[in-house]
Amino acid sequence: MNKAHPKKVGKGGEAADLLQEELRRMKELAARAQADLQNARMRAEKEAHDIRRFAAEGMLIRLLPTLDNFQRAIRHCPPELKSHEWVRGMMSVEQELMRQLEAVGFKRMELLGQSIDPQKHEVLLSGPGENGKVIEVLEDGYELHGKVLRAAKVKVGSGEVPQSVQGS
């Protein structure tokens, strides 16, 4: 005889009580299983979302030196060539490239004047200027969806007053 589902019970009410209790336990078990399934689905969706969101991370990190060189070449273009149609075309390509990268969550960090943050700054030099503040960005830092891909290489203020201010 199955103890969970007795076939013969002395009183009809006792059998009904046992069945009600068994039904309650089964409903509780089903509700827990459904909640576990829902939680697993939500975790899987979040993981898939994160994978899609950061799928480009490795590729972008590998492209950073190329992007730096492209931007450096444009910045160091001789003034007499800046009006040349080919140079203007390259400047437009750089602007469009940055717009497209920003559209997928990639962006250059604006750090000038900010206090030092070891997550965002790699301090290479110091010089006259406000103590602990970025006074020059030597190499841009970038983020993808707010996550730092590369810290910026910066020069920070040492707290000394710049000579141009001292002489005034």
Structure explained in plain terms:
It is a single chain. The protein has 168 residues and is of the alpha+beta class. The chain folds into 2 domains: 10-55; 56-166, Head domain of nucleotide exchange factor GrpE (Nucleotide Exchange Factor Grpe, Chain A, domain 2, Roll), CATH 2.30.22. The protein has 4 helices and 6 strands; from the N terminus they run H-H-H-E-E-E-E-E-E-H. It has helices at 12-54, 57-75, 85-103, 163-166; strands at residues 106-108, 121-131, 134-139, 142-144, 147-150, 152-157. The strands form 2 sheets. Strands 1-4-5 form a 3-stranded antiparallel β-sheet. Strands 2-6-3 form a 3-stranded mixed β-sheet, with no helix packed on it. A hairpin with a 2-residue loop joins strand 4 and strand 5. The radius of gyration is 32 Å and the shape is elongated.
